[in-house]
Amino acid sequence: MHLLTLHTHGSSNPLGISSNGDKLPMHPYFIFKDLVTILLFFLALALIVFYMPNVMGHSDNYIPANPMQTPPSIVPEWYLLPYYAILRSIPNKLLGVVGMLGSLLILLAMPLLDTSRVRGSQFRPLMRFAFWVFVSDFFLLMYLGSQHAEEPYITVGAIATVLYFGWFVVIVPVVGVIENTLMDIATDK
């Protein structure tokens, strides 16, 4: 999907400045180049699936199931750990599921929440700092999702969850307004 959109509309300037003069049209060379990349990806995927299927598995998967005993720690895969931490940080089960679903759906609101006139982060130092705050919070949630539901992790998980949602609802719009204001002040002089 990305390749079709990229080659239909052309590629843009890496600085985030859009200009029709900077775009490259679609050409058979680019199609061949993309197909080579896709075929190499499928080759690597086929090697893993057919020759090394257990390379990414967990050793707990080979323990025989015991219907009379719950495993001591049930932990989802690494890519689901932040959402699991959000689920556990909210005491109410229904609100935890809503929070976990909302943590994904809030990404759809980003075009509405980003109030900045400049879309790229190349010329936005405050947004770059805010982005790394978000990345740090995401990795903290990932770590907290892998820990047992004990007291220091529950409290830190609740704070990290508030920071996660606060980043989208508060920090992104406020940083956009601040940067727009600073840009207007700089252009008035």
Automatic annotation (TrEMBL):
Domain Cytochrome b/b6 C-terminal region profile: residue ranges: 16-186
MF annotations from Gene Ontology: metal ion binding; oxidoreductase activity; quinol-cytochrome-c reductase activity
Protein name stated in the entry: Cytochrome b/b6 C-terminal region profile domain-containing protein
Pfam families: Cytochrom_B_C
Keywords attached to this entry: Electron transport, Heme, Iron, Membrane, Metal-binding, Transmembrane, Transmembrane helix, Transport
GO cellular component: membrane
Major localisation: membrane
Membrane-spanning segments: 30-52, 94-113, 125-144, 156-178
Topology in the lipid bilayer: Multi-pass membrane protein
InterPro entries hit by this protein: Cyt_b/b6_C, Cyt_b/b6_C_sf, Cytb/b6-like_sf, Cytochrome_b_C_euk/bac
PROSITE patterns: CYTB_CTER
Compartments where located: Membrane
Superkingdom: Bacteria
